[in-house]
Specification:
This protein is an all-alpha fold. Helix content is about 75%, strand content about 0%.
Length: about 50
């Protein structure tokens, strides 16, 4: 079992994948936009409520 795992890890280390930087930045920007929208909605919803 250990040798199979070691072989798989070594094979994964030897392969090199090109990462599309534009896609990575796009996904990051989209995620950040969604998070900011959710925070804005949370603040807007909570602004009209009284503190308890």
């Amino acid at each position: 079992m250990l040798s199979t795992l070691t072989t798989a890890v070594l094979a994964a280390e030897e392969t090199h994948h090109e990462v599309n930087q534009l896609l990575a930045w796009g996904i990051g920007a989209l995620t950040l936009g969604i998070l900011f929208a959710l925070v804005f909605a949370l603040i807007a919803f909570g602004a009209g409520r009284e503190h308890s």
